[in-house]
Amino acid sequence: MAQNKKAEFPEKVQRIASFTKLLSHPARLAILEVLAKRQTCICGEIVEILPLAQSTVSQHLKELKEGGLVKGEVDGTSTCYCIHWENLSKAYEEFSEHITLIKQYQNKKEGNCCE
């Protein structure tokens, strides 16, 4: 039986991986863009803008909310969503720092094994 080795990696690296996984679907990126432009949005409005079914939008919003990038408040029969700017900024900062760390090794080695 295969074991999940995710826990073997540092917590910060796990957070970065979760963040990038959330952003790995074009629908979630499009939803974040809609929310950013509107500052607040009801799920039904997103469906009117994007070429996605209501159930698909709801699933992506659920994932973004569980990942902490979106907040949602129930308003009667609808849920009003907005970007959780603090969490998005923190995740982006960690991601950027990690990419900078990786890039420090660029051109350190003579020759490139892939060229």
TrEMBL record:
Residues 8-103 form the HTH arsR-type domain. Keywords: DNA-binding, Transcription, Transcription regulation. GO terms for molecular function: DNA binding; DNA-binding transcription factor activity. It comes from the Bacteria. NCBIfam families: HTH_metalloreg. This is ArsR family transcriptional regulator. It comes from Leptospira noumeaensis.
